[in-house]
Every structure is written in structure tokens, then in C-alpha cells.
Design a protein that fits this description.
Chain B: Its main location: nucleus. The complex is a heterodimer of chains A (743) and B (99). In chain A, 64% of the residues lie in helices and 6% in strands. Chain A has 743 residues and is mainly alpha-helical. In chain A, 33% of the residues are buried. With 99 residues, chain B is α+β, with helices and mostly antiparallel strands. Chain B has five helices and three strands. In chain B, helix 4 packs across helix 5. The chains are: A mainly alpha (743), B alpha+beta (99).
């Protein structure tokens, strides 16, 4: 009522009751009933809306609403019952079509009936809380037609049959299917779920169970997955085409769990085509499909991840423990990097970079890499190789990517301090022999290590660089003062000819460099003089310092004459000492050489080996001939030496990787270095906590040192005991497991 | 479809109004637009055997009044003149027409 009212009205009730025809209700209803029947028979054109509306209106107004409503229910019910019979009577394929037609007509009729009974809907239905005409129509259809024992199972069977035929590859009338499911949905989602969806899902499950069984026997894993993927696509497509969208998730879940979920283990473990073979063959596409399917089922991704991790761990283990493979450190590391690269590609390419997968790969790597005790050494050797040779001429990007890859492996190492030790050694060799290819690359390694492990880790490495730089400056100053004819030597020596020696010295800070304090060998006299000269020069500017010559690190260029052939020999300081002895003698026994030079045994052997036994570099001749240098051997100056080149580089036969005893020694040293670190950590912790129980101390220390190495609990315990002895800590009087910090 | 419809009162007066205006009444709107082909829908005429011309005229005035002001803020709407003696009849008509 939108009319605007003005003022107040008093509406009085009628003083006398309106007389009403007692048969009014029945008469009016008769009119309406006839009209409804006409409408149901599609014969409404002769009817007056106004008249019907007015009649319904008057019935409601005059309290015949009940009569009107119940009459409507009766009429519709009777109508629908006859419809149901007619639907039942249809044969075969006509069934759905007939049902659809009847449904459409019913809807149309109900709409018209609703229109003329609009007033009833508005007033009577609302007040009595009954179903409105529209809903009434649906309810009656549901009860009188759909749920008839002769119709319900037939409808279901027909629908499921059509779906089955379509799954089998036949083309079906999708629009008819669509109409049928729409009808069910219109009758309310619960009806749809109960009458169709639930049995449909059940049938789907059974269908795919059978299919999965069949595929398992006929297909390999990638083919199975391909088919499963296609099936999933089909099911989604089917839902879009003629099912309610709410079914999509459900049917997908059913198919996933039936095809993948139940078969996931069997599939992944298929002998020649399962997950592992796919990984081995780098089948990224198949792996990607597997991942996208597996992640959809519960536990699928986990299974895949676990299998992948285990496999990687297993192959990695074989790789690092295979003595053949671990012979060449560079190749070993390259293999590791290749492996890492392969798995990164798989994770990135097939698993969308899934974090969990990446973590699984990383932890597998960490697990097997640390199985190999020499991994830190090998990694350092690899980087040494790259920095010495491999990166020559490589672009900046290449350098970066190689170093990044190496750093990735580095991150996996638990014994980072061991790596540091080796890296320091190798770096020292590189710096002293001037063999580093690119200063930038060296520095970028340092920066990487620093970001990875902090300043402490690299401070010594950095001071090595500084030493080299200062040495260059010192040498410049020294040479400027000296006339070029003057000679001398040290860590690095360039001796030319017999009298003029061109010395180049690198002054190293003790402690920053890994050089073992090797005993000094006896230098030839002419060199001693030059060395002393330099010492005086150096101490004049840096008084109070002590210079110790590291003769085991240097190298020299010698000019030598073999008959009428002249060559320049590039040798180590030791070798130079040996060769200079031959200026005065043509033949020397091993023992004599050792006595005259004071070169340590192992080094002497090695130096002689490379002087006498390498083809094309054999400036000395050994008697008797043999592969090994024995103490009884005698060496001759090899006058018959020839070479294509004027310059001959005689490398030391230095075992690239450490020999067993050396390795033990390094390990011992590292272990010795660890002790103060562990102690420092304990003290730090105890200082902060004052009192703490044993297990917490162990845990805390392990956590603090994890970036450097993994201390064994027994080792920590020993350090604690040592600290107690030295009265840094004490045990609690009452609780022996508790430690107190003594300030 | 014509833009006008004819509304016929119980005493035979015909009011030709815009279809749009007539549709202010939900009842008339349904009559004219219902899917079923009722008489009114085909002829564009609606007879009201229970509404006299004097009331129907007022109703038609209201249709236009409503159409004109339906989007105007309440304050700016002038009052709709309404003789008190017609109030009850109008009320009934309004209920009937669902206006």
C-alpha cells in the first residue's frame, strides 16, 4: 500500500454481518478448479486472469483459504498421478524425453497457477506458513512423479547407464542429461544428492576400481598417469556439461582416490617405469604429471617425496662411498653437482618448485654428503681446480653459477671448519704460486663464505689477501732501492743463472696462513746472500719482526744448458736447490742430496720424482731406473734432455688430494682447533645462563656450532670436564647433572 | 505489444494508461506479463467488475503519481490528495491490486 494517508481515520466494523451464500466457497472453487485443469491442459487462452484472480482473492478474503489450498493440492496431485502413469508407460529411450517434456509443462502450468493464486501466496500462505504455490508444485512433482517406485529406479538406471556409455566412449544426448539433472537440482539439492549424486559417485568409484585394476596390468606408470589425467579431465568436463557444479569436487575426489590414491604406492614402485626409473631417465614431463596427480590425493606428495629422498640418499651414498668414484676429487664434486642440478631441475620443472620437495632433496644431500669424510676436502679441491684452471676465460655469469653451485654443496657440509682448513691451504697455494685465475672470483668466493658463515670464518682468508697485496708493495719498494743486479730469496724465489738472482718475496702473517712451520732447507750460498739482503731491508722498515723463510712454498725459474740447447726451467724452491747442486757435480747420491739440502724426506722424494721420472721433464737421470725413488738411488745430470719448448715447467708430483697420513694429520689439527671453539661456546652459554643442566648444554652447544661443524656429545662432555677442572664451571652439589658458572 | 492498456471499471468507464503506469500494480503486471496466454494478455484490456470508475480513476492517478516520484527523496514528494470518503474503497482496491 503506497498511498499517502493524511490525518486519522476511524474505521468502524460493519454493524451487520454480510450475508454470504453458503455454497459460495464450493462454487468459486469449482470455477478455479476448472481453470486449473484448463491450464494443465494448455488451454488457458480463454481464461480471464482478472476473473480467476478475483475469485481466488475473494475466497481468501472470505476465509475460504483452506478450501482453496487443499483443493489446489488435490487437483495438482491428481493431475500428476496421471502424468506419472503416462511417463511410466513410455518405452525405452523415450522415457527421459517424456519426463523432460512433462516436467517443462508442469513448470509452465505451475507458474500460471501461481500467478492467478498470487493473492493466496501473498496472504494466506504467508499467514498459515504453508509452502507457496511454486514450492508446492515441486514437492508434489517430487512425491507423485519422481519418487514413484516405477520411476525412481528407472530414472537412476537410465542416467547412470548414459554416463557409463559416455565413459565407454559413446556419444550421448547431453542436453537430455542436463535437463534431467537440472530437474533434480530444481527439486532441491538434497533431492539431487540423494536421487542421483550419491549413487553416481558410487558407480564412479566402482567403474574406476575396475579400470585401475585393468590399467595396472596393461600399462606402465607414465601411461597410467596419462590415462588418469585424461579421465579426470573427462569427469570435470562431464560435470560442466550436465551435472551440478557442486558435484565436481566430489567426483574428482572419488576418481583421484580410486585411480591414484589406492594405487599410488604400486604405481610409484612399478619396476621399469615407476618413480625411480622416471627420475633416472629425467622424464620431467611424466614426473610433473605424477606430481600434479599425487599432490591431489592424501599422502601422495609425501609418498613421492619420501621415495625420491630415499632414492637420492641411496644413490648418493653409493656415489660417495664408491672408492672408484672418489679417486678424483674434481670429478667427484662435478658428479655431485650434476646430481644436484638434476634434482633441482626435477623439483623446479616437475614439482613446481615445491618447498617440501626441495627440502627433501636438500636433506638427502646433506645426509649422504656427510657420509663421505673427505667431502670438505674434495669440495675445496674442486673450487681450487676451478679457480686455478676451470674458470679461465669463463664469463662472469659462468663463474658466478659455478661458485653458487659449489656454495650449495658447501651449505650441506656439516664439517665446515674442515672445509675452511682445506680451503685455506689451497688458497695459500694459489696465492703464493700466483696461479689464481681471477682475483674477482676469489673475492666473490670469500664474500659468499662470509654471508654464509660470518666474518669470523673468513677473516683469516681475507688477511691472506692483504698479505699478498702488501708484499707486492714491499717488493716494489725493495726493487726500487736495489740495483737490478742484486739477488735474494724466500717463500717465493726466482733465481736466474748462477750469479744474478731476481728475488721476489711474499711476507705472510703467521697465524693467518696454514703453512706448517717446515724446517728451512739449506739454500745455495748465492741465494743466502740475497735473502739476508732482503731481511735487512725489511727489518729496517718493520723493526721487531721476525722473518722465517718458507722454502717449501716457493718456486724458481732456472736457465740451464743441456749440451748446446738452452732451456728455462720453472721449478719449485726445493727442486732449484737440488738442481743447483748439479752445477758442481754430474752425479749425486740420494743421501748426499738429502744431507746437502736438508729437504724433508717426503718432499725430497717428490721433488726428485718429478725431476727424474716424468717423461719430457726428466732433467735428471736416476740409477737404477725404477718407478719409485729409493734412498739408495743415484742421480745424474741428464745431458740428453730435450724438449720442444724453451720453457719447461716442472711441476711437483704432489698428490692432489691428501695421502692417508696427511689426512689424519689435518683431521687431528681440525679436531684440536675444535676444542677451544667448543669451550668458548660452553662458556658463552654458561655465562648467560649461570646454571644449566647437562643435556641443555649439549643441545645449546650443538646448535651454536652447527654452522661450523657437528660436535659429538662425548667431545662436548670432555670439554665440560676440562672446564670444571680449570674451575670455570662446577657441578651443582645436589644435582650432579647441573652445572654452575663460576665467574 | 502496445504501450498502452485499457482498464475498464465496473460501471463501464475505460481508462487508457501507459503500460508502465499500470504495472505499478503487481496484479496488473502479472496479468499482462504472465507466460500463460490469458485473455488480458492478448487483448490488452482488463476489466474490474468490482471497482467503480471513481475509484479506478483515483487508482490511475496514483499510478502516475507513483511513477513520477518513486525515485524522489521522501521530503520532496507532495501529498497525494485523497478524499476521506473514498479511503476505504481505495484501501480495498489497493489490496486487490497489490499496489
Amino acid at each position: 500500500m503506497g498511498t499517502v494517508k493524511k490525518g486519522k481515520f476511524k474505521i468502524e466494523p460493519f454493524k451487520h454481518a454480510v450475508k454470504m451464500d453458503p455454497n459460495y466457497g464450493e462454487k468459486t472453487w469449482k470455477i478455479l478448479e476448472d481453470a486449473i485443469q484448463e491450464i494443465n491442459n494448455h488451454n488457458a487462452s480463454g481464461l480471464s486472469f482478472e476473473e480467476l484472480y478475483r475469485n481466488a482473492y475473494n475466497m481468501v478474503i472470505n476465509k475460504f483459504g483452506d478450501r482453496l489450498y487443499s483443493g489446489l493440492v488435490d487437483t495438482i496431485t491428481r493431475h500428476l498421478e496421471s502424468i506419472a502413469q503416462r511417463v511410466e508407460a513410455t518405452q525405452g529411450d523415450g522415457f527421459l524425453r517424456e519426463l523432460k517434456l512433462r516436467w517443462t509443462n508442469h513448470n509452465k502450468s505451475m507458474q500460471m497457477i501461481r500467478d492467478i493464486l498470487m493473492y493466496m501466496d501473498r496472504i494466506y500462505v504467508k499467514h498459515q506458513h504453508k509452502a507457496c504455490v511454486q514450492d508446492l508444485g515441486l514437492e508434489l512433482w517430487r512425491d507423485c512423479v519422481l519418487r514413484q517406485p516405477s520411476i525412481k529406479p528407472r530414472l537412476l538406471a537410465t542416467l547412470l547407464g548414459l554416463v557409463r556409455r559416455e565413459r565407454g566412449g559413446e556419444v550421448i544426448d547431453r542436453s537430455l542429461m542436463r535437463a534431467s539433472t537440472l530437474m533434480l537440482v530444481d527439486l532441491g539439492l538434497p533431492v539431487y544428492v540423494e536421487e542421483f549424486e550419491r549413487p553416481f559417485l558410487q558407480a564412479t568409484k566402482e567403474f574406476y576400481m575396475v579400470e585401475a585394476q585393468e590399467w595396472m596390468t596393461t600399462c606402465d606408470c607414465p601411461e597410467f598417469l596419462r590415462r588418469a589425467e585424461r579421465r579426470l579431465g573427462e569427469e570435470t568436463d562431464r560435470v560442466h556439461a550436465y551435472l551440478d557444479s557442486s558435484t565436481e569436487a566430489k567426483v574428482t575426489r572419488v576418481v583421484e582416490s580410486t585411480l591414484i590414491g589406492q594405487q599410488k604406492r604400486a604405481l610409484a614402485e612399478m619396476e621399469h617405469s615407476g618413480l625411480i626409473p622416471l627420475i633416472q631417465q629425467d622424464k620431467l614431463e611424466d614426473l610433473g604429471r605424477m606430481y600434479s596427480l599425487y599432490r591431489r590425493v592424501e599422502g601422495g606428495a609425501e609418498l613421492m617425496r619420501q621415495m625420491m629422498g630415499d632414492h637420492l640418499r641411496e644413490t648418493g651414498k653409493q656415489l660417495v662411498l664408491d672408492p672408484e668414484r672418489t679417486k678424483d676429487p674434481v670429478e667427484f664434486t662435478e658428479r655431485l653437482l650434476a646430481e644436484k642440478d638434476k634434482y633441482d631441475k626435477i623439483v623446479r620443472g616437475a614439482c613446481c618448485g615445491d618447498r617440501a620437495f626441495q627440502n627433501a632433496v636438500n636433506s638427502s644431500f646433506e645426509a649422504f654428503l656427510n657420509l663421505c669424510p673427505r667431502a670438505p676436502e674434495y669440495l675445496s679441491l674442486f673450487m681450487d681446480d676451478r679457480l686455478k684452471r676451470g674458470l679461465k676465460g669463463a664469463s662472469e655469469d659462468d663463474v658466478d653459477s659455478t661458485l653458487d653451485a659449489a656454495m650449495v654443496l658447501f651449505r650441506f657440509l656439516q664439517e665446515k671448519d674442515l672445509f675452511e682448513k682445506y680451503y685455506k691451504q689451497h688458497l695459500a697455494k694459489r696465492l703464493l704460486s700466483g696461479r689464481t685465475v681471477s682475483d674477482d672470483a676469489e673475492r666473490s668466493v670469500l664474500i659468499r663464505l662470509k654471508t654464509e658463515c660470518g666474518y669470523q670464518f673468513t677473516s683469516k682468508l681475507e688477511s691472506m689477501f692483504t698479505d699478498i697485496k702488501t708484499s707486492t708493495d714491499t717488493m716494489r719498494a725493495y726493487k726500487a732501492k736495489r740495483p737490478p743486479s742484486a739477488p735474494p730469496s724466500e717463500a717465493s724465489t726466482s733465481g736466474a743463472g748462477s750469479s744474478e738472482v731476481d728475488l721476489s718475496v711474499q711476507v705472510l702473517t703467521t697465524g693467518s696462513w696454514p703453512t706448517p712451520n717446515a724446517q728451512k732447507c739449506t739454500l745455495p750460498r748465492e741465494l743466502e746472500a740475497v735473502c739476508d739482503d732482503f731481511r735487512h731491508f725489511y727489518l729496517r722498515t718493520h723493526s721487531g719482526r721476525k722473518l722465517a723463510w718458507q722454502t717449501n712454498m716457493g718456486h724458481a725459474d732456472l736457465k740451464a744448458e743441456f749440451g748446446d740447447r738452452k732451456h728455462e726451467l720453472n721449478v719449485s724452491t726445493y727442486q732449484m736447490c737440488i738442481l743447483l747442486l748439479f752445477n758442481n757435480a754430474d752425479q749425486l747420491a740420494y743421501r748426499d742430496i738429502a744431507a746437502m739440502t736438508n729437504i724433508p724426506h717426503a718432499d725430497l722424494q717428490r721433488s726428485l720424482q718429478s725431476l727424474a721420472l716424468v717423461k719430457g721433464r726428466n732433467v735428471l737421470r736416476k740409477e737404477p731406473m725404477g718407478k719409485e725413488v729409493e734412498e739408495t738411488d743415484v742421480f745424474h745430470f741428464n745431458e740428453a734432455f730435450t724438449s720442444k719448448f724453451y720453457k719447461v715447467k716442472i711441476g711437483t708430483v704432489s698428490a692432489q688430494k691428501e695421502s692417508e697420513p696427511e689426512k689424519q694429520e689435518t683431521r687431528l689439527k681440525v679436531e684440536e682447533d675444535r676444542k677451544p671453539q667448543i669451550e668458548a661456546a660452553i662458556v658463552r652459554i654458561m655465562k648467560a645462563r649461570r646454571t644449566l643442566d647437562h643435556n641443555s648444554v649439549i643441545a645449546e652447544v650443538t646448535r651454536q656450532l652447527a654452522p661450523r661443524f657437528l660436535p659429538a656429545p662425548a667431545l662436548i662432555k670432555k670439554r665440560i670436564e676440562s672446564l670444571i677442572e680449570r674451575e670455570f664451571l662446577e657441578r651443582d652439589l645436589h644435582d650432579r647433572k647441573l652445572y654452575r658458572y663460576l665467574a | 505489444m502496445s504501450a498502452f492498456v485499457k482498464l475498464i471499471s465496473s460501471d463501464g468507464f475505460e481508462f487508457t494508461v501507459d503500460r508502465k503506469a499500470a504495472c505499478v500494480s503487481n496484479t496488473i503486471k502479472q496479468m499482462l506479463s504472465a507466460d500463460g496466454n490469458f485473455m488480458e494478455n492478448t487483448s490488452g484490456e482488463v476489466r474490474f467488475p468490482e471497482i467503480p470508475a471513481v475509484i479506478l480513476e483515483r487508482v490511475c492517478q496514483y499510478f502516475y503519481y507513483k511513477l513520477q516520484y518513486q525515485n524522489t527523496p521522501a521530503k520532496a514528494i507532495p501529498a497525494f490528495a485523497l478524499p476521506p470518503e473514498q479511503a476505504l474503497e481505495l484501501l480495498k482496491a489497493a489490496n486487490y491490486l497489490d499496489t
